[in-house]
């Protein structure tokens, strides 16, 4: 019988259910087929006017209607869909009665323009609109639903009620590493013996004018709008930024012992998690790469594996000049010569950067890589960057023997987090 | 640290650092003095009709020496980064790179301020019919400051603390109003108790002097209007008065504290939380009762510090819970500090730990039935946080003799 505890004596944490939604589609089957076919979900934005914007493409999820639109409502819908798929696959608990806590990675929430504009119309053309006037019309119950909707905890509250998770649901943000942090919190809770199961969800429906413009003003986004599917070019010499995208990923984590006891199908193992914060700059990594290096080493140490055992890296790979360079520096510092041999691909070349959701979306794709023994490609890789001599699995998926995957996430605010995922306990 | 199997008994955790910057001042002596004198700093005029508790004057240079760093932050981040620095000072680890580089950090955060002038300008043009298609894009592209985004991102309070103070072991930001403050402390303690972490910086900051925040709460009619009153005296005019303030704690394992010769303020024994659906009257009361029994309390030499908001029905339901424990002295931070939302629970823990370390419960700033004077040093203080809309939490803090 396989050991229920890892090398450090902690409960082994397994994945028994997964769900995913991206611009490529809804569900693991569709996403996996399109990912391996090298398809892009990036399209010209039709949700709102793009006049005057430098970037006019995104990986929006257009096939799920949300009317009237708000990013928070879309985030909630995406999280619902991914979670439903994950919980159904796990076959855990009863409908609406998940036997463990919720950890939700979600974008910071605030009132959005359609609601502000509604207040503006309410005030009318005869008065000067300012926040005092907005405050004057906002009370009295007329906009009561906006209080609930735009609380930071509202999406988690909805999921907790819908899926019946236990205890206080945690909403978190570690910027673009949020999805990974949600998984890490679930792993830690199970290792502490606090819970036999945890629901880890990450969602982002942020493509609205102001969010796009904010990233654009930081010069973070690709402006290669034409054709849209070629906008995201991770690790290419002609990369010029990331492409905003929407999506959600959900994972049901369980202790191996609990999963085995109920005869659950084991989809993979979360063998280790690592993190390390960077104190160099608000948006840039420390030039020496030390925080990324430390984060990757922490993940390897936590899992008790060596670099030799990693046979695929699911890169953060945003396609910004800075990220990809720093990711190479970090990986090559830790992996040495192997950094040139080990396949390193970026899902973001196809689905775009799902921001708060990315860590969980890519964890699902990493586990599907283990399941199918097939590595999704990095598309739009036509002009290699000689400074980044990774094997990026260029443009075409590849069959390979994969036993252990590292999935990396790095975010604004010095957030670094990495996961080690395996097919079997290590 | 290398994490191994959870120990059979929880590892004892101490509060060894407290950082407070609020409407009552900054630092522990100033707070102790203000609390002892029942001081309240409420402002009924600046945001009339809304009552707020404004931040006391603070010289940010003392903890955020680079003006460039200060400029990159909005007020909530400055308050938090400042309070975090005070907590590190108080714990005696400020500038100790060895410890800071492996110190874990959990911050409970909301989001940053909007540019009110930009918002109003756009809405004005739109309502007066002066906005062509694409107007919103044009104005946002030209009027939004690029750095404003970074001042708005929830995780950038933690990011700024890493940059200014060098806390880099880990950086996690929880969101979700009051409950995020409870969960930040709960998870930090759970990690230390299980040997997953040795030392952590935990806390939150809130700027209550913000019309965009007042707007969010006004949708639900939660703001206290016109006249200040203690949280227990708002039967006919319920609501919370937003407060500005930052509260951070350094929590560490006893062994780690002893090895470096750190003095504890108090022991953080337990933190529990729940999420009542609040569909029936009495849900909050019964949830608090069950958290109380999970804490494993004794009533002897016990006091309560609550973050009751003044909003209904949560405040009345909490009062029903308190009445079931009638002999226990109760202090409500909402009365003195206003409602600092994400920071209210860490703030409650901070004043509880401070009280235990000074061997006295501070005087009550209100005259409610449980404003009981405590003549003996408290042995334990239970900190309560029931959110205005969701989330119930409780912590047990104990004196170390």
Automatic annotation (TrEMBL), chain A:
SUPFAM superfamilies given in the database record: Thiolase-like
Cellular component annotations (GO), alphabetically ordered: cytosol
A molecular function GO annotation: 3-oxoacyl-[acyl-carrier-protein] synthase activity
Keywords tagged on the record: Transferase
NCBIfam families: PRK06501.1
Name of this protein: Beta-ketoacyl-ACP synthase II
Residue ranges annotated for the Ketosynthase family 3 (KS3) domain, each copy included: 10-423
Organism encoding this protein: Nitrobacter winogradskyi (Nitrobacter agilis)
Keyword Methyltransferase: no
PANTHER family: 3-OXOACYL-[ACYL-CARRIER-PROTEIN] SYNTHASE, MITOCHONDRIAL (PTHR11712:SF336), POLYKETIDE SYNTHASE-RELATED (PTHR11712)
InterPro entries according to UniProt: Beta-ketoacyl_synthase (IPR000794), Ketoacyl_synth_AS (IPR018201), Ketoacyl_synth_C (IPR014031), Ketoacyl_synth_N (IPR014030), PKS_Beta-ketoAc_synthase_dom (IPR020841), Thiolase-like (IPR016039)
Membership in a protein family: Belongs to the thiolase-like superfamily. Beta-ketoacyl-ACP synthases family.
Recorded metabolic or biological pathway in which this protein acts: Lipid metabolism; fatty acid biosynthesis
From TrEMBL, chain B:
GO biological process annotation, one example: fatty acid biosynthetic process
Name listed for the protein in its UniProt record: Beta-ketoacyl-ACP synthase II
Keywords recorded for this protein, A-Z: Transferase
Cited SUPFAM superfamilies: Thiolase-like
InterPro entries linked to this entry: Beta-ketoacyl_synthase, Ketoacyl_synth_N, Thiolase-like
Gene3D superfamilies with a match to the protein in the record: 3.40.47.10
UniProt GO molecular function: 3-oxoacyl-[acyl-carrier-protein] synthase activity
Domain Beta-ketoacyl synthase-like N-terminal: 15-256
Origin: domain of life: Bacteria
């Amino acid at each position: 019988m396989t050991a229920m505890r890892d090398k450090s004596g902690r409960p082994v944490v397994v994945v028994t259910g997964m769900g995913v939604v991206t611009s490529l589609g809804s569900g693991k089957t569709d996403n996996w087929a399109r990912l391996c076919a090298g398809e892009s979900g990036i399209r010209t934005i039709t949700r709102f006017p793009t006049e005057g914007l430098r970037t006019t493409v995104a990986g929006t999820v257009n096939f799920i209607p949300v009317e009237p639109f708000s990013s928070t409502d879309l985030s909630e819908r995406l999280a619902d869909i991914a979670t439903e798929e994950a919980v159904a696959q796990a076959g855990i608990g009863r409908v609406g009665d998940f036997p463990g806590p919720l950890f939700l990675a979600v974008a910071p929430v605030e009132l959005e323009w359609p609601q502000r504009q509604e207040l503006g119309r309410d005030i009318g053309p005869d008065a000067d609109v300012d926040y005092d006037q907005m405050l004057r019309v906002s009370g009295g119950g007329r906009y009561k639903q906006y209080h609930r909707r735009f609380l930071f905890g509202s999406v988690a509250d909805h999921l907790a009620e819908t899926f019946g998770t236990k205890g206080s649901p945690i909403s978190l943000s570690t910027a673009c590493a949020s999805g990974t942090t949600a998984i890490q919190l679930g792993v830690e809770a199970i290792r502490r013996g606090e819970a036999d199961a945890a629901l880890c969800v990450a969602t982002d429906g942020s493509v609205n004018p102001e969010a796009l413009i904010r990233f654009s003003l930081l010069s973070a986004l690709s402006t290669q709008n034409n054709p849209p599917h070629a906008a995201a070019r991770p690790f290419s010499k002609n990369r010029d930024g990331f492409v905003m995208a929407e999506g959600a990923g959900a994972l049901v984590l369980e202790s191996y012992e609990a999963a085995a006891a109920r005869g659950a199908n084991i989809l993979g193992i979360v063998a280790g998690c690592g993190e390390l914060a960077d104190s160099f700059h608000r948006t840039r990594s420390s030039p020496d790469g030390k925080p990324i290096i430390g984060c990757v080493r922490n993940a390897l140490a936590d899992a008790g594996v060596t670099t030799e055992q990693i046979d695929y890296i699911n890169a953060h790979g945003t396609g910004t000049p800075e990220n990809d360079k720093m990711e190479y520096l970090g990986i090559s510092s830790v992996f040495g010569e192997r950094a040139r041999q080990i396949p390193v691909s970026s899902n973001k070349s196809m689905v775009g950067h799902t921001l708060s959701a990315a860590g969980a979306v890519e964890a699902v794709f990493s586990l599907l890589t283990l399941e199918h023994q097939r590595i999704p490609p990095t598309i739009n890789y036509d002009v290699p960057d000689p400074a980044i001599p990774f094997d990026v699995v260029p443009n075409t998926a590849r069959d390979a023997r994969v036993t252990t995957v590292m999935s990396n996430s790095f975010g604004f605010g010095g957030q670094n987090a990495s996961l080690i995922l395996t097919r079997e306990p290590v | 640290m290398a994490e191994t199997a959870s120990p059979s008994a929880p590892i004892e955790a101490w509060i060894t650092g407290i950082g407070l910057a609020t409407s009552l001042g900054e630092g522990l002596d100033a707070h102790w003095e203000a609390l002892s004198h029942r001081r309240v700093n409420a402002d009924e005029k600046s945001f009339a009709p809304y009552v707020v508790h404004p931040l006391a004057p603070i010289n940010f240079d003392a903890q955020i020496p680079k003006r460039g760093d200060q400029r990159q932050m909005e007020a909530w981040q400055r308050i938090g980064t400042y309070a975090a620095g005070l907590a590190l000072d108080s714990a005696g680890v400020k500038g100790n790179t060895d410890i800071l580089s492996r110190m874990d950090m959990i911050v409970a955060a909301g989001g940053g301020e909007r540019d009110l002038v930009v918002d109003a300008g756009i809405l004005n043009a739109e309502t007066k019919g002066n906005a062509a298609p694409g107007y919103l894009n044009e104005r946002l592209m030209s009027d939004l400051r690029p750095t404003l985004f970074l001042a708005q991102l929830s995780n950038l309070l933690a990011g700024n603390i890493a940059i200014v103070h060098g806390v880099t072991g880990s950086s996690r930001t929880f969101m979700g109003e009051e409950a995020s403050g409870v969960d930040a402390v709960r998870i930090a303690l759970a990690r230390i108790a299980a040997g997953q972490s040795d030392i952590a910086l935990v806390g939150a900051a809130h700027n209550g002097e913000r019309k965009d925040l007042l707007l969010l709460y006004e949708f639900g009619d939660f703001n206290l209007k016109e006249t200040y009153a203690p949280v227990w005296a708002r039967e006919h005019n319920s609501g919370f008065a937003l407060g500005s303030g930052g509260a951070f704690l350094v929590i560490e394992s006893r062994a780690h504290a002893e090895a470096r010769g750190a003095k504890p303020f108090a022991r953080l024994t337990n933190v529990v939380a729940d999420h009542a659906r609040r569909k029936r009257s009495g849900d909050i009361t019964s949830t608090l009762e069950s958290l109380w029994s999970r804490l494993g309390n004794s009533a002897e030499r016990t006091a309560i510090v609550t973050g009751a908001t003044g909003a209904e029905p949560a405040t009345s339901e909490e009062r029903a819970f308190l009445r079931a424990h009638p002999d226990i002295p109760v202090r409500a931070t909402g009365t003195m500090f206003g409602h600092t939302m994400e920071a209210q629970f860490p703030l409650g823990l901070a004043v509880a730990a401070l009280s235990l370390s000074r061997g006295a419960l501070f005087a009550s700033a209100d005259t409610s039935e449980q404003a009981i004077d405590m003549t003996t040093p408290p042995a334990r203080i239970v900190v309560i946080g029931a959110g205005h809309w969701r989330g119930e939490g409780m912590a047990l803090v104990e004196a170390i003799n």
